[in-house]
User: Fold this.
Amino acid sequence: MAVAFYDLGSAAGLKKLDEYLLTRSYITGYQASKDDITVHAALPKPPSSEFINVSRWYNHIEALLRISGVSAEGCGVVVEGFAPITEEAIATPLSVTQRQAAAAEDDDDDDVDLFGEETEEEKKAAEERAASVKASTKKKESGKSSVLLDVKPWDDETDMKKLEEAVRSIQMEGLFWGASKLVPVGYGIKKLQIMLSIVDDLVSVDSLIEDQLTVEPVNEYVQSCDIVAFNKI
Assistant:
């Protein structure tokens, strides 16, 4: 069954999307798909930081489009007033030849002097803008990773709802919790599988497990945590 969203250009529409993404890393499923591209393209502009879950998801999809593209089909999504994504609209990374051609075109543009020689004030302003862009780019280049964790309870009597609440209660800069599910282990015991994304410069997964997930008060519910998958974004 397709997921539906409405009026993504309004605060109310973004709030609904933000609530939807509170426990999800992607619009549907456990990997980026055409559904994510459809919703991404339907947003008239990047979401404000007020909508933290939408911003986290939007930046993640932006990075995927720049680096590797998105090819998974997804489960289907409907955005009011916006056509479903087509095969031709899916972004893929530029080839080496395309990047070289784009760079050559930029060089040609630099050789065209439309307004004559720059004044000292114009040169200074241009240098300040370049420095600002460089600093902004440097900040954006901070690496990010997507992680899948296995969180194991003490026994079959552990309240798994409270276990997940305890895990998600851990908040820190650069840490974003995603989708989760309960997976049967045996003898009536289930484990929690949960997705998270991190900013590598700010969060260490090993430290997160050792210093947050397996110590008081979380260890009242959590026996141990294991990294199932770790992928650079």
